[in-house]
Amino acid sequence: MLKKLMILTLIGILTLPLSISASSVPQDVEENLQQNLSTWIPSLQRLTNDQAETNKQGLAAKNEAEDHLGEGYAVYDIDLRNSVTKDTYPLSPEDMLRFKGYMFTVEGQNGSKALAFAYSPPNYTEITRISSSEEFSDADFKIPMEKAKKLVGFNTTSKLLYDLAHQTIALVTTTDKGQQVALLEDSMLLGLKKYDVLSLTELIDKVRNIESEQAQNASINNEPTSGGGGGSATGNGGAGNLQNAANSSAISPYIWSVSVIVLIGIGVLTYVIYRKRKKYSLQNHM
Q1: Is the pTM of this model over 0.70?
Q2: What is the 3-state secondary structure (H, E, C) of the chain?
Q3: What is the pLDDT of residues 171-230, one digit of tens each?
Q4: 269 vs 172, 262, 272, 273, 277, CA distance in Å?
Q5: Which of 49, 170, 229, 267 is surrounded by the most beta carbons within 10 Å?
C-alpha cells in the first residue's frame, strides 16, 4: 500500500502543470527587489493620484504599505546584431533574443497598479523604473498575459519579449510545435494584432525585414537631392557639370583674346583710311 501511494505521489508531481513550478526570476533577486520597492512608494503614490479619476479599480484608495511585487518575468528584446557577431552558423532564432533584466507587476490592496523594471546589471537587484504608462498600463497587463499563456502555454522555457523599439510585447514559449509567440498588444510596425500567434522564426524575419527597409530608406534619404557626384562627363550629374564648367573657363579667355585683336584691327584700318583721305584732300587743294 505504501509503495503504491509513493508511486501515485510521484506521478502526481511529474504531471503537475509546468507553470506552477516555472519561475524565470531567481528567488534572491525577487527578495532584493521587494526590499527596493519601498524607495519607490512616493512614485507609486503619484501614479495612484494620476489615475484616481480614470481607473475603475479605485487605485487612489490604497494602503501604500501593502504594495508588493506580483508575478515576475525575465525580459528580453530582439537584437539582430548578434547574428553578425557569432561565429557559429546557422543561428537559432533564440540567439536573437537579448536578456535585459526582470519585470514585475506591482500589486496593491485593490489590484495591479504599476510595472516595475529591474534593468540593473550585473545583479539586477535594483528597480530602475516604475511606470504604468508603457504601451499599456500594468492594470491591463495581466489580462493579455493570461490569455497569451493559454494560447502558447507557460513553462520554464517561457520568455517575455518587452521590446518597445520593435513594438513587440509578447510571450515566447517552446511547445511541441517549436518556439511559439503570442502578442500581448498590437504591433503596427510589424503588422501584427493582439493575440496573434506565430513562430519565433516568423517574428524574427518580420523584424529583419523592417530593419532592412528602414536602412534602405535612410540610405535613400541621405543621398544628395541635386548635383549628384555620379554623373558622366556628358550627362547631367556632378562630374558632367564640373566638366562643362571647366570647358566654359577654357573658352572664355579665347573669346576675349579674339575680341581684342578684332578691335585693334578695326582701329588700325580706320586710322589708315583716315590718313589716306586726309592726304587725298590736301593734294586736291594744291
Answers
A1: no
A2: CHHHHHHHHHHHHHCCCHHHHCCCCCHHHHHHHHHHHHHHHHHHHHHHHHHCCCCCCCCCCCCHHHCEEEEEEEEEEECCCHHHHCCCCCCCHHHHEEEEEEEEEEEECCEEEEEEEECCCCCCCCCCEEECCCCCCHHHHHHHHHHHHHHHCCCCCCEEEEEHHHCEEEEEEEECCEEEEEECCCECCCCECCCCEEEHHHHHHHHHHHHHHHHHHHHHHCCCCCCCCCCCCCCCCHHHHHHHHHHHHHHHHHHHHHHHHHHHHHHHHHHHHHHHHHHHHHHHHC
A3: 999 999 999 999 999 999 999 999 999 999 999 999 999 988 888 888 787 655 444 444
A4: 99, 10, 5, 6, 12
A5: 170
The grid coordinates of residue 46 equal 503619484
Give ∠ CA 241-245-246 in degrees, rounded to 5: 120
Cell numbers 502526481 correspond to 12
